[in-house]
Amino acid sequence: RALCPLVPAAPAALRALPPPVAVGVLHTTRQLHTTQQSLAPVPPLPEKGGEVRHGLIPEEFFQFLYPKTGVTGPYMLGTGLLLYLLSKEIYVVNHETAAAACILTVIIYGIKKFGPDVAAFADKLNEEKVASVQAVKDEAMQALQTAIEAEKKEQWRAEGRSYLFDAKRNNIAMLLEANYRERLLMVYNEVKKRLDYQVAMQNLRRQKEQDHMIQWVEKNVVQSITPQQQKESIAKCILDLKALSKSAHATL
Amino acid sequence: PPAVLLKDMKLMDVKLGQLGSWLAMRDFTPGGILGAVRRGYERYYNKYINVRKGGLGGISMVLAGYVVLSYAWSYSHIKHDRRRKYH
Questions:
Q1: Is residue A85 situated within a structural domain?
Q2: Contact partners, residue B56, CB within 8 Å, separation at least 6
Q3: Inside any domain, residue A118
Q4: Could you read off the pLDDT of B9-30 as tens digits, one per residue?
Q5: Which residues of B touch A119 (CB under 8 A)?
Q6: With an 8 Å Cβ cutoff, are A49 and B64 in contact?
């Protein structure tokens, strides 16, 4: 309080009040949309309008007078009223009356002759309007229906996720296995290479020892052959050859 | 029958004797008059014009009303065409 001098200190009476209930309380008690009223669906238009007799007087008037005066009551009233207006000259017969009579005749003749056609034409226009809007509505419904089906299909597809995960797990297991075997093979190859090296070394050593020994033995033997022995061995060879040629001649 | 306040009753349900007091209770402010005109228009429109197969009566009643009203407004002018002076 001392740091913000602009905030006026609340009077002690206000501070003594309990804090407002709204603090920390959810407004769950307020209900929305309690009435059934809603703007859609709009009720359809009535088929026909209110009944009008002779194009001028609503039917309700005739029904209103029917209990007291029967069917001819309103007509009697109309006739009486007309005569009263004429006799008291509240309605004045002048040139406008003649004009009105001619105009009304033409109008009524036109209505009687062309009325149904015009009505049919207007109905057709209305039908087209309604049909186009209905088509839009049907298309929207269709699109929503297909969307619903697609959604259901997606939900069904989502059910197969266990298979998907199993396949993925299998894949990973296979990868691990392949990796493990690859490394195993590598280890085996490396070890074999080293062992082969050792074996080759041993073989080489033996080979070399063997060759060296043979060479040494040969050298010594050749050295030890004295000329005397050479002559004796050559003579023996010649004798052997002669004997062999004799036996070969004998077999021929 | 449930009791309805006089000012909420429809005109057809008002008895003749109560007519004066009923009229006095109506809302004659400009907003009230406008509301009454709008309500009347809506009633007429929804009954005779805003239908699937509207007939001739819808507009012909309006035109007839216009004819009668214009005759009434020009009566002081037409009075001079009367054939007799005393009726």
A1: yes
A2: A52, A55, A111, A115
A3: no
A4: 777 777 778 888 888 888 788 8
A5: 53
A6: no
Residues linked to residue A52 through DSSP beta bridges, in sequence order: A58
User: Cα distance from B47 to chain A (closest Cα, Å)?
Assistant: 6
d(CA B36, CA B44): 12
Cα–Cα distance, A154 to A250 (Å, whole number): 106
Kindly list the residues from chain B whose CB atom is less than 8 angstroms away from the CB atom of residue A83. none
- Of the candidates B53, B56, B81, which has its C-beta nearest A48's C-beta? B53
* Domain assignment present for A84: yes
**Where exactly are the structural domains of chain B?**
1-54, 56-86
Residues 6+ apart with CB under 8 A from A60: A50
Nearest residue of B to residue A56 by CA position? Answer: B61
Please write the tens of the pLDDT for every residue from A6-40.
555 556 666 777 766 666 566 566 666 666 666 67
